Amino acid sequence: MIKDNHVIVTKRRYSGLKTLLITLAFSVEFCLLFMNDFPEKIDFVYAFAVYIMLALIFLSSSNDKKTYLRFENFLTHILKCIGLNVLVTIYLISLLHKYMSVCKIIVDMGILMFANILSIAVIFLIINKYTGRKCPEAKRILHIYKERFEQQDNVDEALKEIKKEMEGYEYVYLHNLSSRARKRLLKYCYEHDKTVYCTANLSDVLLRASGLAQDIDTPVYYCTSFGIGGVSATLKRIFDVMFSLLLLIVALPIFIVVAISIKLEDGGSVIYKQVRCTKNMKQFTIYKFRSMAENSEGEQAKLAISNDKRLTKVGRFIRRFKIDELPQFVNILKGDMSVVGPRPERPELIEEAIKNTPEFVLRTKVKAGLTGYAQVRGYYNTGFKEKLLWDLMYIENFSLMLDFKIILMTVFTVFSENIRDD
User: Fold this and answer.
1) Helix (H) or strand (E) holding 188
2) Largest CA distance in the chain
3) Is 353 helix (H, G, I), strand (E, B) or coil?
4) Collapsing DSSP states into helix, strand and coil, what is residue 297?
5) Which of 214, 251, 324, 366 has the fewest Cβ atoms within 10 Å of its own Cβ atom?
6) Are 53 and 27 in contact (CB under 8 A)?
């Protein structure tokens, strides 16, 4: 079966080359900016060596070599670049504050950071143009669906036919196959050098984040407790509070304008409240700017849809740019939510979802979030199962770096969606 292919894989075999080129660009920019400004009493070579050492450590560490998602590698380098420049700014202030104005050092480092980010963008554009992404033509991919096995009583016979059919294809795409069928086809593809795509399931998500151990002479995987705890949870909470306070202060004028606009349009309430669930199914009241006519849901809550007729004029605008979600930063300060995490659902919807997909309850192992992996990787009409898998991948692979990337991708997603709408 042939269909359009939408799989885009970012090749990672050149990630080391990217890191070296970026570090080289950083060193040139650092020399151009600071070589003539260092006082004679300060050894420029020593300061430069420290900078290059930090650059190599930052850019080459904690980089997931098995992630082939668009923008993730690029954003990782950008965030590491920002961290590097902040550290170097502190280092240079401690080194040069007696000889140079602290303000000048900060301005110069701001210029260097801008040059660094520009270098990363240029290097990624050039390398990705020739080696970065591949999207195989549909005619080169053999799509295999589970229905194919259901149509035949003999699984072995079906596998035999599929293996023969594979000879004319370079790529194989396995869609929701049983464990037995997938295992045998993966082994065959490995032996015959076929590139394989597989839809993910829950066990894949858990194993991907597992650790590797050894039992005498046997390699084994181990999976730790599911969720975010310990030091990671503390750091995440500190970030949530700091980020929310900063945004609420910056966005205060927007809050005032939106509140007045909602009140002037129909005289109704400004804030819409609804019961949602967060960590461990704990219920809380979520806050939003009201975007629909008052009492438009009636006695029973209804899911919002695209171009919903219940939206007011102001509501349509604030929904489009996600401004209606801003009051949820108050929920984050209260501890009900986090900036990044699975989106909170209503209790009745969770109960209904668990009947068909018991794994859905795993989403509530962490606090609900204002934005999440499912929101930046999925679409408005993305299926329930796919959103669940993205949420579980986030929980199992949590890091503050991933949170930062999701926040940046959220901004990009909001603006890109509106550009497409226009």
Assistant:
1) helix 179-191
2) 83
3) helix
4) coil
5) 214
6) no
Gyration radius from the chain CA atoms:
26
pLDDT at 20 over 70: yes
Separation of alpha carbons 234 and 237, rounded Å: 5
Tokens standing for 391? 């949420």
Cα–Cα distance list, 346 to 27, 126, 149, 339, 355 (Å): 52, 46, 37, 18, 15
Are 276 and 346 spatial neighbours (Cβ–Cβ below 8 Å)?
A: yes
The token pair at 204 is 């894949």
């589970």: which residue's tokens?
A: 146
pLDDT at residue 3 in the model: 47
Hunting for tokens 């000879």 — which residue is that? 167
Residue pointed to by tokens 């939206």? 311
State which amino acid sits at residue 209.
A
Give the three-class secondary structure for 123. Answer: helix
Q: Do residues 342 and 366 touch, judged by C-beta distance below 8 A?
A: yes
What element of type H or E holds 284? strand 283-289
- 45-59, 93-107, 212-226, 272-286: segment of lowest average pLDDT: 212-226
pTM beyond cutoff 0.90? no
Q: What is d(CA 72, CA 128) in angstroms, rounded to the nearest whole number? A: 13
CB 5 within 8 A of CB 138: yes
Contact 173, 197 (CB under 8 A): yes
Say if residues 136 and 5 touch (Cβ distance below 8 Å). yes
Tokens linked to 163: 């293996």
Q: Are 373 and 391 in contact (CB under 8 A)?
A: yes
Provide the 3-class DSSP secondary structure of residue 138. Answer: helix
- Yes or no: say if 276 and 368 are a contact pair by the CB < 8 Å rule: yes
Judging by DSSP bridges, how do beta strands 195-198 and 171-175 pair with one another?
Answer: parallel
DSSP one-letter code for 359: G
What are the beta bridge partners of residue 368? 337
The answer to whether the beta carbons of residues 301 and 275 sit under 8 Å apart is no
**Which 8-state DSSP code applies to residue 382?**
-
First to last CA, the chain: 35
Rounded to whole angstroms, how far apart are CA atoms 169 and 179? 22
Q: Which two tokens stand for residue 227?
A: 């969720």
* pLDDT tens digits, 61-115: 766 666 677 788 889 899 999 999 999 999 999 999 888 899 999 999 999 999 9
